């Protein structure tokens, strides 16, 4: 039923309060669609991708980590985190923590330059915050105590994500200077760095899992990857908060860069390893999506192709060559290589956005701020110092996000470790889902009850996730 609230005036005019003059139904409808597409990247996209990309014994736990994070972040977001990211200033890197659930806020115009309600922005930015934490989880699959993860998610969103979002997108000290169209730094660099840092503190997987960790369902993995790729239409298409020309360009650039990156990664696999790896193609797809994100709507399509070539080759080198040779990378067990696919690709995209940003597109997107020009256009237009200054801001933003996430993620992990084990013990790591959740992804034993679940065949003991740190069986 469609119910409109109307008010009759003495003159006989009627005001439709559900459709005020500032509301653009096209922008409003597109933004809600874009936010839903970003949400679908997480649930079911990353739920399916994670549940399929890990060993069978970790399928349930990996998928459930993503599902829990999605729900947990939403509650934190509306109660305090949205205003910490986009509200009134508290300090230069953080807004005041306030709830965002009143009609007087949600139903009013977001900003004078946008023609949609604040509720659209709250929901859209929630989907961004949620996927950031879920991407981070990719570094921790296959060994993190689920109860520790339940504490980690709200703490990290509150203390880390909000700072990056406020500093670059809210009213922070970098907001008027840095180019980050849709989250190359706020989302991808932060998730990659934080995931790698948390992986260090949590510790490695079971030794056998680390050496042999095949995906349990490559077809489902491709399905999850498909949700991720097509959902990126909303990820980058929703950032202008309008259905305008920048939206269309951003969507086209996103898919062009992604396809290019996938093909480059695949080609390198075939040249070096003589096989066309499906997992490699998915990794190349992800690095392309990540790399184009900070510049999707403010670079030309020829630049998007160049970004795809670099995003398919540089992260390939760091993951497939440098990672295997570096003692530093070998020391930290990053399960799905999130550092390479998100931190490296996000940093690359941020730097390349500062290089290729078109000043005309920057004016269309940022409206009143002072970003740009890109370094190449600065040289071409006789504004060398302005372009060089923009590159400096891009580097400064990357340094700030990196340092903040290393420090805060470390403090969060240390705090949680004082309350509960970060990592499951060796017995639970050997069993997997059945030990942690009492459930299995493929319960084939149930066909005729010929065999009992593993949990009923083990000697009764206190599960590790119920024990305080330092206690034993």
TrEMBL record:
Location(s) in or outside the cell: Cell membrane; Membrane
UniProt cross-references to InterPro entries, sorted A to Z: Ammonium/urea_transptr, Ammonium_transpt, Ammonium_transpt_CS, NH4_transpt_AmtB-like_dom, RhesusRHD
Coiled coil (residue ranges): none
Transmembrane segments: 32-51, 63-82, 122-141, 148-169, 181-203, 215-234, 246-266, 278-296, 302-323, 335-357, 393-416
Keywords: Ammonia transport, Membrane, Transmembrane, Transmembrane helix, Transport
Domain Ammonium transporter AmtB-like: start-end pairs: 32-442
Origin: domain of life: Eukaryota
Bilayer topology: Multi-pass membrane protein
Pfam (any one): Ammonium_transp
Record-linked NCBIfam families: amt
Family from the record: Belongs to the ammonia transporter channel (TC 1.A.11.2) family.
Protein name per UniProt: Ammonium transporter
Organism: Penstemon davidsonii
